[in-house]
Amino acid sequence: KVLQNEVKMSNFSPRTMSNSWMKDYDEAVLRYEGFLDGAQDKAREMATRMLLKNKPLAEIVEFTGLLESEILQIKATLEQK
Known about the structure:
Elements: H1 2-10, H2 14-52, H3 57-64, H4 68-80
Helix pairs in contact: 2-3, 2-4
């Protein structure tokens, strides 16, 4: 019975547990980064639509959370088209 417990405990060695936790952490970070990228893309899309409707810059900043400089870059891109 002691041997069985040792075998069971060996399945949970610090190295194995650490590797598992690191893998879970890495996956969580990647999902979070993907979420942030998606949110940024959505904010840029909203800013583009608002610019096309001639909304004030301050309003676009307020509703999208983008920096004024980012919105001006989007505006410059739209003006080039």
